[in-house]
Design a protein that fits this description.
single chain, about 190 residues, mainly alpha, rod-shaped, disordered C terminus
Protein backbone atom coordinates (compact mmCIF):
# COMPACT_ATOMS: atom_id res chain seq x y z
CA UNK A 1 0.00 0.00 0.00
CA UNK A 2 1.18 3.39 -0.87
CA UNK A 3 1.27 6.19 1.69
CA UNK A 4 -1.37 8.10 -0.33
CA UNK A 5 -3.89 5.26 -0.01
CA UNK A 6 -3.22 4.93 3.73
CA UNK A 7 -3.76 8.67 4.21
CA UNK A 8 -6.98 8.54 2.18
CA UNK A 9 -8.24 5.63 4.30
CA UNK A 10 -7.45 7.48 7.53
CA UNK A 11 -9.15 10.67 6.26
CA UNK A 12 -12.17 8.59 5.18
CA UNK A 13 -12.42 7.00 8.64
CA UNK A 14 -12.21 10.43 10.31
CA UNK A 15 -14.93 11.81 8.03
CA UNK A 16 -17.18 8.82 8.76
CA UNK A 17 -16.60 9.27 12.50
CA UNK A 18 -17.52 12.96 12.29
CA UNK A 19 -20.68 12.12 10.34
CA UNK A 20 -21.59 9.48 12.93
CA UNK A 21 -21.13 11.86 15.86
CA UNK A 22 -23.04 14.63 14.06
CA UNK A 23 -25.95 12.26 13.39
CA UNK A 24 -25.91 11.24 17.05
CA UNK A 25 -26.30 14.90 18.08
CA UNK A 26 -29.18 15.33 15.66
CA UNK A 27 -30.83 12.28 17.22
CA UNK A 28 -30.36 13.72 20.75
CA UNK A 29 -31.80 17.04 19.66
CA UNK A 30 -34.85 15.41 18.06
CA UNK A 31 -35.45 13.14 21.06
CA UNK A 32 -35.30 16.10 23.43
CA UNK A 33 -37.74 18.07 21.27
CA UNK A 34 -40.06 15.06 21.16
CA UNK A 35 -39.82 14.63 24.93
CA UNK A 36 -40.82 18.26 25.49
CA UNK A 37 -43.75 17.78 23.10
CA UNK A 38 -44.82 14.76 25.18
CA UNK A 39 -44.97 17.03 28.24
CA UNK A 40 -47.15 19.45 26.27
CA UNK A 41 -49.50 16.61 25.26
CA UNK A 42 -50.00 15.62 28.90
CA UNK A 43 -50.46 19.25 29.94
CA UNK A 44 -53.11 19.67 27.23
CA UNK A 45 -54.87 16.60 28.60
CA UNK A 46 -54.77 18.17 32.05
CA UNK A 47 -56.16 21.46 30.72
CA UNK A 48 -59.04 19.61 29.04
CA UNK A 49 -59.92 17.71 32.22
CA UNK A 50 -59.86 20.68 34.59
CA UNK A 51 -63.03 22.41 33.31
CA UNK A 52 -64.96 19.13 33.63
CA UNK A 53 -63.72 18.64 37.17
CA UNK A 54 -64.51 22.23 38.13
CA UNK A 55 -68.03 22.01 36.66
CA UNK A 56 -68.66 18.82 38.64
CA UNK A 57 -67.50 20.47 41.84
CA UNK A 58 -69.53 23.63 41.11
CA UNK A 59 -72.71 21.62 41.29
CA UNK A 60 -71.92 20.67 44.88
CA UNK A 61 -70.03 23.70 46.16
CA UNK A 62 -71.43 26.79 44.49
CA UNK A 63 -70.42 29.04 47.39
CA UNK A 64 -66.73 28.02 47.12
CA UNK A 65 -66.37 30.15 44.01
CA UNK A 66 -62.98 31.59 45.04
CA UNK A 67 -61.25 28.21 44.97
CA UNK A 68 -62.85 27.30 41.66
CA UNK A 69 -61.95 30.65 40.09
CA UNK A 70 -58.33 30.23 41.27
CA UNK A 71 -58.11 26.84 39.56
CA UNK A 72 -59.49 28.19 36.28
CA UNK A 73 -57.21 31.26 36.43
CA UNK A 74 -54.14 29.07 37.07
CA UNK A 75 -55.15 26.81 34.17
CA UNK A 76 -55.51 29.77 31.81
CA UNK A 77 -52.16 31.25 32.89
CA UNK A 78 -50.43 27.91 32.37
CA UNK A 79 -51.99 27.51 28.92
CA UNK A 80 -50.84 30.99 27.88
CA UNK A 81 -47.25 30.24 28.90
CA UNK A 82 -46.98 27.04 26.81
CA UNK A 83 -44.56 28.55 24.29
CA UNK A 84 -41.86 25.97 24.98
CA UNK A 85 -39.43 25.11 27.74
CA UNK A 86 -39.14 28.29 29.78
CA UNK A 87 -39.21 29.49 33.38
CA UNK A 88 -42.62 31.22 33.05
CA UNK A 89 -44.17 27.94 31.93
CA UNK A 90 -42.62 26.04 34.84
CA UNK A 91 -43.85 28.62 37.37
CA UNK A 92 -47.37 28.60 35.87
CA UNK A 93 -47.48 24.79 36.01
CA UNK A 94 -46.43 24.86 39.66
CA UNK A 95 -49.19 27.33 40.48
CA UNK A 96 -51.73 25.15 38.67
CA UNK A 97 -50.65 22.10 40.65
CA UNK A 98 -51.10 24.06 43.87
CA UNK A 99 -54.62 25.15 43.00
CA UNK A 100 -55.55 21.59 42.08
CA UNK A 101 -54.48 20.51 45.56
CA UNK A 102 -56.84 23.11 47.05
CA UNK A 103 -59.64 21.83 44.83
CA UNK A 104 -59.17 18.29 46.10
CA UNK A 105 -59.01 19.62 49.66
CA UNK A 106 -62.36 21.33 49.00
CA UNK A 107 -63.86 17.96 48.18
CA UNK A 108 -63.10 16.86 51.77
CA UNK A 109 -65.78 19.32 52.95
CA UNK A 110 -68.46 17.75 50.76
CA UNK A 111 -68.95 14.01 51.39
CA UNK A 112 -71.58 13.78 48.63
CA UNK A 113 -69.08 15.22 46.18
CA UNK A 114 -66.42 12.69 47.16
CA UNK A 115 -68.89 9.88 46.45
CA UNK A 116 -70.05 11.34 43.12
CA UNK A 117 -69.07 8.98 40.29
CA UNK A 118 -68.25 11.79 37.85
CA UNK A 119 -66.04 13.52 40.39
CA UNK A 120 -64.24 10.30 41.27
CA UNK A 121 -63.65 9.47 37.60
CA UNK A 122 -62.39 12.95 36.80
CA UNK A 123 -60.19 12.95 39.89
CA UNK A 124 -58.76 9.57 38.85
CA UNK A 125 -58.13 10.84 35.31
CA UNK A 126 -56.46 13.97 36.61
CA UNK A 127 -54.31 11.95 38.99
CA UNK A 128 -53.35 9.64 36.11
CA UNK A 129 -52.51 12.68 33.99
CA UNK A 130 -50.31 14.12 36.76
CA UNK A 131 -48.43 10.80 36.87
CA UNK A 132 -48.00 10.90 33.09
CA UNK A 133 -46.72 14.49 33.30
CA UNK A 134 -44.15 13.38 35.87
CA UNK A 135 -43.08 10.49 33.64
CA UNK A 136 -42.84 12.80 30.61
CA UNK A 137 -40.70 15.25 32.61
CA UNK A 138 -38.38 12.43 33.69
CA UNK A 139 -38.15 11.21 30.08
CA UNK A 140 -37.34 14.76 28.94
CA UNK A 141 -34.64 15.14 31.61
CA UNK A 142 -33.17 11.77 30.62
CA UNK A 143 -32.87 12.93 27.02
CA UNK A 144 -31.35 16.24 28.12
CA UNK A 145 -28.87 14.31 30.30
CA UNK A 146 -27.77 12.18 27.32
CA UNK A 147 -27.47 15.25 25.11
CA UNK A 148 -25.42 17.15 27.71
CA UNK A 149 -23.18 14.15 28.32
CA UNK A 150 -22.45 13.82 24.61
CA UNK A 151 -21.63 17.53 24.46
CA UNK A 152 -19.20 17.21 27.36
CA UNK A 153 -17.23 14.04 26.58
CA UNK A 154 -14.23 13.90 24.33
CA UNK A 155 -14.08 13.79 21.29
CA UNK A 156 -17.77 14.41 20.61
CA UNK A 157 -17.56 17.74 22.49
CA UNK A 158 -15.30 19.06 19.74
CA UNK A 159 -17.72 18.06 16.99
CA UNK A 160 -20.77 19.28 18.95
CA UNK A 161 -19.19 22.69 19.50
CA UNK A 162 -17.96 22.81 15.90
CA UNK A 163 -21.51 22.38 14.61
CA UNK A 164 -23.05 24.67 17.24
CA UNK A 165 -25.16 22.17 19.18
CA UNK A 166 -26.52 23.61 22.44
CA UNK A 167 -27.99 21.50 25.19
CA UNK A 168 -31.46 22.45 26.41
CA UNK A 169 -32.21 23.18 30.07
CA UNK A 170 -33.29 20.43 32.43
CA UNK A 171 -36.88 20.64 33.63
CA UNK A 172 -36.64 21.88 37.21
CA UNK A 173 -39.17 23.22 39.66
CA UNK A 174 -38.85 26.91 40.36
CA UNK A 175 -37.30 27.81 43.71
CA UNK A 176 -40.07 28.00 46.32
CA UNK A 177 -42.76 26.66 43.98
CA UNK A 178 -45.85 24.98 45.40
CA UNK A 179 -44.80 21.62 43.96
CA UNK A 180 -41.45 21.84 45.77
CA UNK A 181 -43.11 22.29 49.19
CA UNK A 182 -43.92 19.30 51.39
CA UNK A 183 -47.61 18.40 51.57
CA UNK A 184 -49.19 18.74 54.99
CA UNK A 185 -51.72 16.06 55.84
CA UNK A 186 -54.18 16.71 58.68
CA UNK A 187 -56.76 14.37 60.12
Amino acid sequence: MTPTIIILIIVGIIILAIIGVYNRFVTFKNRTTEAWADIDVQLKRRYDLIPNLVNTVKGYAAHEQGTLDAVIQARNTAMQSMAGANLDHTVAESALSGTLKSLFALSENYPDLKANTNFLELQRELSDTENKIQAARRFYNGNVRDFVTALQVFPSNIIGNLFGFKAPEFFELAEGSVEAQPIEVKF
